[in-house]
Amino acid sequence: MSSFTPKSDFLQVMTERGFIHQCSDLAGLDALASGGKLVGYIGFDCTAPSLHVGSMVQIMCLHWLQQTGNRPIALMGGGTTRVGDPTGRDESRKILTLEDIERNKNGIKQAFSRFLTFGDTGTDALMTDNAEWLTKLNWIEMLRDIGKHFSVNRMLAMDSVKLRLEREHEMSFIEFNYMILQAYDYVVLSQRYGCNLQMGGSDQWGNIVNGLDLGRRMGTPQLYALTTPLITLASGAKMGKTASGAVWLNPDMKSPYEYWQFWRNTEDADVARFLKLFTTLPMSEIERLAALQGAEINEAKKALADAATTLLHGPAAARVAAETARKTFEDGIAADTLPTVTVAGADLMAGLGVLNAFVTAGLTASTGEARRQIKGGGLRVNGIVLTNEHAMLTPADAINEGAIKLSMGKKRHILLRPVD
User: Fold this and answer.
1) Cβ neighbours of residue 242 under 8 Å, at least 6 residues apart?
2) Residue 67 DSSP SS3
3) Residue 419, exposed/middle/buried by CB under 10 A (0-12, 13-18, 19+)?
């Protein structure tokens, strides 16, 4: 990789911004991209009602593919979700109902319109669902026409299977077939849309290469594979996981303010890398921000938060989020645009215990955790450190524009607002 100098805009962007982990044929891929002949896809299974920030690397790959004159395909996994990808798991995924899958699919579609331009011609992005062809497969025909190309010996050697078996964790036959279905997706997309590139995380390399092999055996034109590195934080923690759970992309599951705050809280050592991966800021500006040291690095973090939030939620939401943060942290007041949780006014009238209040607000997972936080001085009500775990909240505490500001640490705040 270090000796390869790409000529295409696509691979230049992917290289300088740190998106490439492995590629099946860099020179061949570069030649196609130089001529604007790449049609690349990434699959997204419908396992939750929203994608989370861990999917942003893949979404950005599709974004840059289109921005550099090639065509992206966002493949919804309405069919493969019924099976469940075993990659990186020690137990089977929960089998979802068809209604749940459809609901999740409609939810995860929301984020893509911010990053891709959809249409029917040229480099317009395409969104399709593998349920369209996978659910129509006849079992005998599938075995005869597709299954014959797969070696069980090779399938058993795949990491997604081998690691599960080595740990003596059961793998169901339905999961064992997932790699076949993913490989077949690639062939179908090649036949229907001229797709010649599949991208994915580094843990998907084996599955993607299976698709290349199946395409060769079934007579498709040359297919290519490209994977991105596993994104972990400098601390070693998994990307996108916080104390309050996953950082979802849909605003009804994670507000634009919380999304902005997630990026603002980036560790110093990760700022430069995340500016490259998760924003479209010019490289010259990223280099300037990356050179900031000491307290000035906070300006780089704000720039990261602004740019990342603008991409997903739009410039207006990003401005509101930044101003909310400024009021909350720099001016020390409660902004009415902080995330809000409602509580029945009658409950507040009767007196709401602080332990239950922090659980209701989602700032602590349990009353036991709330107790531990109080002992450590980690919880505040309206900016005042909470010392009494038996304290009760009443309407008199609703002083911040009719709400009570609950805080855990310096960076997590919720407005508890009474409603009739």
Assistant:
1) 262
2) helix
3) exposed
Residue 243 — pLDDT band, cuts 50, 70, 90? Answer: low
**Residue 86 near residue 175 (C-beta atoms within 8 A):** yes
- The whole-model pTM stands at 0.80
Q: How far apart are CA 192 and CA 169, in angstroms?
A: 38
CA-based Rg of the chain, rounded to a whole angstrom? 24
CA nearest neighbour of 305 among 251, 360, 253, 266: 266
Nearest to 206 by CA among 4, 24, 57, 79: 24
Q: Which pLDDT tens digit goes with each residue over 258-296?
A: 899 899 989 999 999 999 999 999 999 999 999 999 889
List the one residue out of 21, 17, 29, 129 whose CA is nearest residue 70: 29
User: What's the one-letter identity of residue 282?
Assistant: P
CB 354 within 8 A of CB 373: no
Please give the DSSP secondary-structure letter assigned to residue 113.
Answer: G
Beta-bridge partners for 381:
384, 406
